[in-house]
What does this fold into?
Amino acid sequence: MEPFEKAASAIDSLFSRSSLPAGVTRVVPGSVEAYWPAGFTLSGINAGIKPQRKDLMLLLCDAPSSAASVFTTNRCSAAPVELSKRHLAASNGRMRAVVCNSGNANAATGSKGLLDATRMAADTAAEFGLKAEEVLVASTGVIGQLLPVDRIAAALPALGAAAGAQQWQDAAEAIMTTDTFPKFFAVDVALSAGTARIAGIAKGSGMICPNMATMLAFLCTDASIEPSLLQEHLSAANAVSFNAITVDGDTSTNDMAAVLASGRGPVVERGSEDSRLFGEALRAVMTMLAQLIVVDGEGATKFVEIRIEGAANDDEAQVAAMTVANSPLVKTAIHGEDANWGRIIAAVGRSGASFVQEELAVWFDGLEILKPGLDAGFSEEEAKKVISKDAYAIRVSLGGGPGTAAVWTCDLSMRYIEINGSYRS
Amino acid sequence: MEPFEKAASAIDSLFSRSSLPAGVTRVVPGSVEAYWPAGFTLSGINAGIKPQRKDLMLLLCDAPSSAASVFTTNRCSAAPVELSKRHLAASNGRMRAVVCNSGNANAATGSKGLLDATRMAADTAAEFGLKAEEVLVASTGVIGQLLPVDRIAAALPALGAAAGAQQWQDAAEAIMTTDTFPKFFAVDVALSAGTARIAGIAKGSGMICPNMATMLAFLCTDASIEPSLLQEHLSAANAVSFNAITVDGDTSTNDMAAVLASGRGPVVERGSEDSRLFGEALRAVMTMLAQLIVVDGEGATKFVEIRIEGAANDDEAQVAAMTVANSPLVKTAIHGEDANWGRIIAAVGRSGASFVQEELAVWFDGLEILKPGLDAGFSEEEAKKVISKDAYAIRVSLGGGPGTAAVWTCDLSMRYIEINGSYRS
It folds into this structure.
């Protein structure tokens, strides 16, 4: 299958498991006229950082846009992460462009790396007539090598010339590393003063266990919304989307999710029903992008939702869910289609969440695997029917508490080891 | 290579990387007359829990011995773990026997599992004329299946008949699951009143990331030492031996390490030089057993020491070392013999340990890979010489702090996935 067909098919398959909130409709992929939200153009080209594939992405706003962002919590955060934080502060959350390269993370590159990121922003600003602090910079790829800034500078005119409101596929391609398909999604949300569009692109696909931040994701909307309210919506949605996925438990040095709002569409006021709806729509786009990252996790052949219920509180549910989702023994059992509930409760048992063994219950989709009292009288044949599917849910109840969490994970396959035993990322 | 030759060769190879404390000499493997410490006999036979291989182990003391033990912190701890804790308390740390089966973990088996463990202890006590609370019970193998207690009971006479002071190889074999070789080690330590012997057996080799406890390990000594002092030495040594290894980050439901002291040899008094020496010797035996578990980790082809220096304190060094040691990206790079220092510092960066990026330094054995200032001007060729070895050390300095830690880990190979995609453990 071609990459774009793969992406569309993955989105269809994820849709079959969930639905959009009321008032929210899907735009991309699907609509013939899939323009990016008004006020934005994008492009993606090859700048010679990688041999053949697209490696430089531009997202341009025609006027200062409200911006919000979350960043990696990794202490070895990359130069572009540090610079983008400064620019967001310096511009009071009003940005004009995002420039992002793949093939080189500009991470662990020290003071030279920060100079390089600064130059990448300055060159972009000069090329498009912006202030440097209006440019967000991002990089992804190999850690510890200096960024080829001259190549990036030389490619900027072509990058600008290629920009358009329909170039989101090029843009999504240009930020890929080991991803096997580009990740994008867009919705319309019906607000009181009209329809707002929210669209985004993202990339995975290894070193994925975002923590209060994400892998690279860039979102745009034409809504008119203040930076501070946009940040609140981004942070809230981030907690249950990008922060709820894991491929390998490794939190990257370069994680970043940013959203820009051009203000060309309907107004979103704090505390309004529109604000609630906008938040739900943003969350729907981010959740889809996050789930696409898991579907395309390095070597992944299965997409599994880990849902914890009945925990003492949501935090304990989250830590239990993440522990199950990251357990190599659970992930290899998922890969081997083994109904190995023992490994699941062993992972829950070491997670630190509080519970009484005898109250545990486990389901694979709707099939009860373990009943309270450690009664595992399920049919192996029925279980096999569920776990041989490409996507399913593992649900664990810890008891009678109010805490719940859902995270999404993939299996651990030999392909993951093949990819990471040779790729220097 | 035969399993015992593999074990001996692994011990030799580990010896080439470290040395025993002064006053401590190796007994097993090596000595022709490798008797277990005075006061103990052992055996290992097949009781029909597994089709062919030995699956039932007995360790018998000829009189009540001082006993100390550490157990898993997994909240889904197995029935034998719970029962053994009760027995240690009930007997005031004076034990006569350890009985252990492989092939079935008696974990997640509820009240029936606790009854089964209780019967296993009672049957053993009856067979050998002991009190039930003088028997430690352990199990390892598949989670969530009921223990075939009738087979164990039927095998007890043969288990007793086979017991001897030289049957430690049989005993080490009988507790194996996916281990490819039995794990054993023994030393003599010269104390002021004579020589004490410390010997132990252990098993791995998946679900290995002990936390305040260990996989199964049973240690014996002829030293004369109070249970409380023995417990202090065991806990201290445990923190830097079994708690300093990881294969896959999964803490088992059945981890247990116990030490029995028959009192037939020299006296070890609290606060004495002998006590310090005894502690060092115990630590040496436990460290060797722990490292053997890593060497024989599921699918492991590399043994790597992760050493953190210059941390703010030992706790931060430990968490940084464990984060590196458990990172799938680091472990696959080790497997692929890729000098991927970026993944190492990325793991340190997400560990929570505090440091400044620019002060990080990384060595592979003696070879400097990353200098402070993020200067990675090393020779790939020289690096390859180190990382193509079967065993080496990755050393990371976080700065100028006093904190240090060492943990031992293995690579993540396709064989791990093969083993765990099919084995229901």
Remarks:
- The longest strand of chain B covers residues 56-71.
- Chain B has a mean pLDDT of 89.
- Chain B touches chain A through 65 residues (CB under 8 Å).
- Residues 3-295 of chain B form a domain with the L-amino peptidase D-ALA esterase/amidase fold (CATH 3.60.70.12).
